[in-house]
Amino acid sequence: MSRDHAQSAERPAPAAGARGRAHADAGPAPGPAPGPASGSAEAPFLELLARGASAEAYEQPVLLARAEGLPAGRIAALQQAKALALRVRAELEGRRRREAELSALFETAHDLAGLRDLDAVLRAIVQRARSLLGTDVAYLSLNDPARGDTYMRVTEGSVAARFQQLRLGMGEGLGGLVAQTARPYVTDDYFRDDRFRHTHSIDTGVRDEGLVAILGVPLMLGHHVIGVLFAADRRARVFEREQIALLGSFAALAAAAIDTANLLAETRSALAGLERANEIIKDRSAVIERASDVHDRLAELVLRGGGVHDVAAAVSQVLDGTVEFTEATAAPAQALESSRAEGHAVRHRDDWIAAVAAGDELLGALVLRGHPGLDPVDQRTLERAAMVTSLLLLARRSAAEAEQRVRGELLDDLLDARDRDPRLLRERAARLHADLDATHAVLAARLEGPAADADADEEADARRRLWAAASHLAATRQGLAAARDGGTVLLLPLAPGDTATELARRTARHLGTAVHEPVTVGASAPVEHLTARPDTVASAYEEARRCLDALRLLGRSGDGSAAEDFGFLGLLLAGERDIAGFVGRTIGQVVAYDERRGTELLRTLDAYFACGMSPARTKDELHVHVNTVVQRLERVGRLLGDDWQSPARALEIQLALRLHRLSAGTTPPARH
Fold first, then answer.
1. How far apart are CA 364 and CA 359, in angstroms?
2. In 10 A of CB 75, how many CB atoms?
3. DSSP 480
4. Scanning 362, 426, 499, 634, which has its CA 20 to 30 A from the CA of 646?
5. Cβ–Cβ contacts within 10 Å for residue 118, how many?
6. Do the beta carbons of residue 469 and residue 515 sit within 8 Å?
């Protein structure tokens, strides 16, 4: 939709006192809308979302509530519901916009597959580019090798005749800069931009049209620029990166249309001069029909939600060979780089390699196996299949990034916004297939190794890779992830029988493998009822960070652990001092043995440590034979392990004995 159309569709918000008129301005509805005094606060906004109402209409339930003098609590609830509904509306609008962009690209690709009229295809490309970018004007210029200049081929939205008839010398104006560098360029203010050469004829035409902000992207055939696709506004404007990429995709389709038209023209010219015209026509017709068939199949695959491997399978059938999608790291590096640089499929031994790329980023490759001889049109088919594959991957990436952002926002709210409505938090989590009522652990992850000492750009890139890997892990485990404090925080559910330590170690290994760098992970103790207790997640995160810092101080970078793994040090790291858990882990078997058998192993241990670990002095303290002391200590060794008298274990056991006495209210045996 153009901006003029979008503006004409807006309606002003009604006055606060005009109750009936406000309902009328909101547009037709399938039934009577519930007033603010009845029903839930969300109901009127859900109705507005269902109707696709304008943003101004969302103010009406609040205005009506104020006009009716409803309580402040009701008005506050409506305000909160309005804010949430507007966020949902914005997200829906963004998704509809992305769907419209992809639909336009696929429709244009389909037009190209059935190319009959080059001018009609180019007009459709320019019209769709102007509509989706919401600019005042869009136009396309082509180079004229015979005259050594460039000329306007198609314009949309232009009102100045002089501008529509411009012919520009090579290297002049913004288009000249784009043609020279073969890269997109954008100017916020054309007449104040001195990066390119201004000429009187160009400036006069631009001034007649009233253009201010201009974006230009090259039309490439191989590594040659054949023209430029422009989008322009009659006011200052900043073009976003996504808009530049979208216009670049339209430019690629326009170049493909021109290339296909040129091939058709060359084919017809050649057929006229050949004696075997009939055979050549049949051959070329079959090839073109095959190309059209594959484009139709690709369009159908995309529209029904197929994946990259479905595209490879469809092209395999058309080309009568085996086509596979491979990761960029698995394809021959030199051939892949040549294909990306030239924009064509290249031969590698008996295979053909077509780079799947988005700008300068390599996303993978389509490889045609064991097919050394390839018709030029079949080669184009392989190349265009690679282009469709790149669009699919970018669409999937956009969807994944959107879900990652939503997961991160929910976890941020759990960490920071402690006054959130628990019901709304559960609903948001349920949409992400996460259960906040299950038992979870909070994990703090941080990169170690060379990435931590790199420059700012490399460090930021490493952190993005860590966040992406953590987000993917959270999505597959029905958890949440967010970037925080120079690292990443995860909220992952604990499976029955699993421990926080085991989960932390698995997570450290998984993330380290994903980013090819050591990753240290500290975990909190298990937490439950995350929405019922506002401080639960924040406290657990602080505990996880303390465990992370302890691992690094102990030289265990690249490992994962929880407070329960640090012995008595875990009491200092844990957010809540789990004294009973520490005692149970350290001397629990001895306590249980005494309770079952009525023995005095705990009393013997107390006396043994009090007597400097001397069996002879211990037997005097307990008034028993020394063999009795030795037998009891042997039993303790079988219960606690052979290393129980090592300095570290002995220290933990003595601390556990003292804590056990304090919790039980008992005193150590008296010294004689």
1. 13
2. 19
3. E
4. 499
5. 18
6. yes
Residue owning tokens 């008595």: 568
**Tokens linked to 214:** 């201009």
Strand partners, 352: 347, 368
Token pair 């259960």: residue: 435
Strand partners, 139: 155, 230
Cα–Cα dist 358/242, whole Å: 12
Mention every residue, 6+ apart, whose C-beta is less than 8 A from residue 361: none
Tokens of 430: 């349920």
Bridge-based pairing of strands 322-326 and 351-358 is unpaired
What are the C-alpha distances in Å from 606 to residues 286, 600, 634?
A: 94, 10, 15
Phi, psi of 642, deg, nearest 5: -65, -25
| Pairwise CA distance, residues 417 & 428, whole Å | 14
Q: What SS3 state is found at 517? A: coil
Of the CA atoms within 13 Å of residue 406, those in its CB half-sphere come to 19
Amino acid sitting at position 121: V
Parallel, antiparallel or unpaired: strands 440-447 and 519-523: antiparallel
For residue 526, the 8-state DSSP code is P
Give the other-Cβ count within 10 Å of 229's Cβ. Answer: 30
3-state helix, strand, coil in the chain (%, to 5): 60, 15, 25
Pairing of β 519-523 and β 560-562: parallel
Q: In what order do the strands lie in the sheet with 137-144?
A: 167-169, 149-156, 137-144, 224-233, 213-221, 185-187
DSSP 8-state code for residue 419: T
Instruction: Tokens for 9, please give them.
Output: 């569709």
The mean pLDDT values, 10 residues at a time, for the chain of 672 residues are 36 37 40 52 80 81 86 85 81 66 64 69 86 91 88 92 87 86 92 90 92 93 90 92 87 83 75 64 64 68 70 76 81 82 83 80 81 76 80 65 62 70 74 81 83 65 83 85 85 88 90 88 85 75 80 78 64 52 78 88 87 86 88 88 83 76 55 48
Dist CA 624 CA 639 (whole Å): 22
Whole-number Å distance between alpha carbons of 622 and 611: 11
Beta partners for residue 155, in sequence order = 139
Q: What is the pTM of this model?
A: 0.36
Q: Which residue has the tokens 């109402």?
A: 53
CB atoms within 10 A of CB 37: 12
d(CA 261, CA 557): 60
Q: Is 477 helix (H, G, I), strand (E, B) or coil?
A: coil
Supply the pLDDT for residue 420: 67
Distance CA 221, CA 344 (A): 9
| SS3 of residue 365 by DSSP | strand
> In angstroms, rounded to a whole number, what is the distance separating the alpha carbons of residues 396 and 385?
16
Cβ atoms of 438 and 512 within 8 Å: the answer is: no
Q: What is the DSSP letter of 170?
A: T
Separation between Cα atoms, residue 427 and residue 445, nearest integer Å: 27
**Interatomic CA distance for residues 516 and 508, integer angstroms:** 11
- Tokens in use for 595? 């309770």
- The DSSP annotation for 239-262 comes to --HHHHHHHHHHHHHHHHHHHHHH
Give the separation between CA 326 and CA 366, rounded to whole angstroms. 7
Q: Is residue 653 within 8 Å of 587, Cβ to Cβ?
A: yes
Tokens of 171: 């290297």
CA distance 170 to 144: 10
Tokens of 338: 């040549």
